[in-house]
Design goal:
Elements lengths: L1 H7 L12 H11 L4 H13 L17 H7 L3 H15 L6 H5 L3 H8 L7 H10 L12 H10 L8 H8 L6 H14 L12
């Protein structure tokens, strides 16, 4: 980790505190299994369905058809997830920004993973990029695992449990460690892929 800090400089992660939980979860769902450029394109098309708003309120989702959402690039599974995120926001299952800020990480994870299409990784992205929680290590994240592989010169990807065990030494700053592992993965994109992973 010292070497990564030396190579990549100070951590520049700045959470987007003004994002609502609805905004954050929809954005995280868009990024599932996609690279950032593709996900950002889909989100730009999604926002264009609601002129005049930076991001639509959950109740406005009823104004658009599934076909319109499909036209943005969302899969049918992600469309179902986004609609459930909207419904669970409106019924209070997904807390408001004010409420969620006061909740502990594991309570947020337990509550939000009851929403369709929202798993632990999706909630961890919210914890990192909206709430700015300092001690989150998304061990299932491909970029984090690949960054660890590259940084340690491994031939194969570490298993999530191996990464979590190693990551105990980074607590209570696991989020910063994850940021550096993402930088290692970005820098190593031209390196050979790990065994069992297609380039």
């Amino acid at each position: 980790m010292r070497r990564l800090i030396r190579v990549h400089g100070p951590c520049t992660l700045v959470p987007k505190m003004k994002r609502s939980p609805f905004d954050s979860l929809v954005s995280a769902v868009a990024h599932q299994q996609l690279n950032g450029t593709a996900a950002d394109t889909i989100l730009r098309r999604f926002r264009a369905l609601f002129p005049g708003k930076r991001f639509p309120a959950p109740e406005r989702l009823a104004e658009v058809t599934d076909d319109a959402l499909r036209g943005c690039g969302f899969s049918w599974a992600k469309i179902a997830a986004i609609r459930d995120i909207a419904a669970k926001t409106l019924d209070g299952t997904i807390p408001t920004s004010r409420v969620i800020r006061a909740m502990p990480d594991e309570e947020i994870i337990a509550r939000l993973t009851t929403v369709r299409g929202v798993g632990r990784w999706t909630v961890e992205m919210l914890l990192i990029f909206k709430l700015g929680r300092p001690d989150v290590l998304p061990a299932d994240d491909f970029g984090v695992r690949n960054g660890f592989r590259i940084a340690h010169g491994l031939d194969e990807m570490p298993k999530p449990r191996e990464l979590l065990a190693h990551g105990e030494r980074w607590r209570p700053y696991a989020t910063t460690a994850a940021w550096y592992l993402w930088r290692a993965a970005d820098a190593g994109k031209s390196a050979r892929p790990p065994k069992g992973v297609n380039s």
